[in-house]
Amino acid sequence: MEKLLPKLCFTLLILLNAIVALAVEKGVISGKVVEEVGGLSIPSAVISVYFDGSEQPIVTSATDEDGHFSIKNLKTGNYSIRVSFVGYAPLKVNGIAITEKDFDKNLGALKLTSDQNSLQEVTITVQKPPIEFGADGVTYNVGSTLLAEGSTATDVLKNVPMVQVDIDGNATIAGKRNTRIFIDGKPSDYMTSNIADLLNVLPSDAIDKIEVLTNPPSKYSGDGEGIINIVMKKGFKVGFNGNVGISSGLQGNGNTNANASYRGKSYAINGSAAYRYNVGKGDSHNFRENFFPDTTFYYDQYGAYRNHNNGGNFRMGLDWTISPKQNLRLSTNYNLNNSNSNSTTDLHYLSEERLENRLRNQHNTGKGNSNNFVFNADYDLQIDTSGGKISLGLNFNTNKSIDFRDYSTTYAQPNTSAPTLQQNNNNTGNRGLNVTLDYEKPIFNKRDRIEAGLAFNYRKNDNDLLIENFNFATQQFVRNNKLSNQFLYNENIGAAYASYNYRKVGWGVKTGVRAELTDVAFDLSTGQNYNVKPYLSVFPNLSLNRFYRKRYNIGATYSIRINRPRENTLNPQVNNVDTLNISYGNTNLSPAYTHQFDLNFGAFGQKWSFNPRLSYSTSQGVIERYRTVTLIPGSNSARSESTYDNVGTNNSLSLILIGNYRPTNKISANGNFSAIQSNYKSQLNSSLNRDGLSFRGAIGLSMQLPLKTAFESNLNYANNTNAQGRNKGSMTSNFSARKVFFGNRLNLRVTINDILGNRTNTFYNEGQNFRLENYSTNNTQNFTFSLNYRFTKITVNKIPPPPPPIKPQ
Description:
Mean pLDDT: 81
Organism: Pedobacter psychrodurus
InterPro entries: Beta-barrel_TonB_sf (IPR036942), CarboxyPept-like_regulatory (IPR008969), OMP_b-brl_3 (IPR041700), Plug_dom_sf (IPR037066)
Number of domains: 2
CATH architecture of the largest domain: Beta Barrel
Subcellular location: Cell outer membrane
Keywords: Cell outer membrane, Membrane, Receptor
Shape: globular
Distance between the termini: 75 Å
Main location: membrane
CATH topology of the largest domain: Maltoporin, Chain A
Largest sheet: 28 strands, mixed
């Protein structure tokens, strides 16, 4: 009996623990999500549940059509939740304790505010879900991914669903030919002469989230077929907060960044600074077949380059609650970049029998620098107790860039052509002013909302190109009057819009219209003047959404967008860096209009989410780069001329699949796939009548490991078609591991980029009398080490100690 008693007790203890475990897993967190103004329920809001101190949500769910949610089968413990929905500030709630005696937690009504800059939101330190779905786009929460730490905006964009980044750092939405990049709702293409330069130095630690808007509302300009909006951190936490970081890679790249914020009773200030240094190198092989009625010959070109780039970014912001009805936000951004480049090309001239008859060697060097300054001011005034508000916005931007390059060309035997030496000095300046006036008001018992506004945008571009050729006889550079000129571009756009948002249980409808009057004039110093007749464009917008109880939603959208020809496509200045491959703009371009139709579906479970989208667009007067090859008179050579043109019409059908699966609270997998079928029709050239399939795929995996470590990886691939060929990319990969120390304040991260090999790119181009294949590779394979330290200092009003007792006399 004495021997059986311990065994019996042990068996009873196991049974008791099993019973308790079964009992405590009946924990429930429930509630209802509503709008703060009007109290209308919000269907399909994302509910993320966390263990206190955890960096990954254990459950992600969504509200039903009445705004209700219920998270079941939770163990005892302390939890936090985060409620989010596109267009509303997130609500973060902590201190939710589930015990054996109190396992059913009803949080009641959780109110979301539509003011993205509200200082009144509840804030705790928890991890956001990486991806949030909305009817008109997708939101990617930057702070939820290890790969975003210590990197730049360009690095982050490579892993955002529906976004692809080309080899030059330009980001586009899959299936969209013209994507605009916004920062905090302001167009960044007005802020810099090269968006890629800005994104390459913008630190990821200063970014809160990235919104991919496939159907921008009427409040936004009609330009572009989609918008990527980079939302910066506002730093609205009580007290003083911030972080400093440094990273370095084996390829010679590195960056440092710091940002800090302070929030007082009625104001918040924030600032950030970053510096980046990068070494780029690579090589290329270009093979072109030139075939004419009487002759066929080939160009076989090999090239290599090495670039050094460095730049800095500085930001400052102030948010001031002047009174309960007035708010003022000010921000400035200064960005600078410097570059040095060195490249060589060897061009082999091959006969029809593919025998070499001439060899050209070219050596190019270049130096460049640019600086950009932006000032934003936004003033909000609440005009009534029902939530009516007037907003006034001002954006002023200016940037300058200098690009100096020289080209030395020699010819090897058997041809003894004289060598040439040329210098190109290109000075570019931009100025812009954008003023907006917006009005919004809830109506019909605060159920619906109307919005209206006016906008004016002014832009000026000054591009001064000086080309000089070296005279070997006089040993002096002589101005090339034929190619040197100054291009001046002026643009004025006035706009007005109105929209109506309708909400009813299970339904959401947004409709609006925007009208824009465009006035453009540009000229050259050589005397040509171009005055485009002012034209009026109207952009209707419709979004319809239906929500169902079982965590499903379906939506449809329609809009018209415009692609305006601007200075980069209109400028007729000739780029003759390679005399056999020249390029220039086209002054005769017309605007291209696109009709877009989108159908999206969403399904959410406790451990998974799935969001397929189907999109169809038809475009008239598509603006794309167009190449022709002509025989040079009196020589056995052919010149390629590349320009822009309204190449014809394009009909495009896109299927986009986005999904997330979380089998445990420590493992999360996500993937997205895009397939776009394009059909080009052109009267410009019969070779442009073609069909093509583009596709992009990406998968990701993240894991929380013991000892406060984590792992994340991503694989991406893209293959795109255009009017004259195809751009075939290669597999790119990122692997990252992180270890945190000192109470999560210090973290060390190691990242391996493109472990499978350097990034390669293959481009095919075909015309009536040529075929071109270009292969290039870049030094993207890299090991990067990063350190980041976060600090927080919260001001606490201490109660003074009581005075000591008075001793009796």
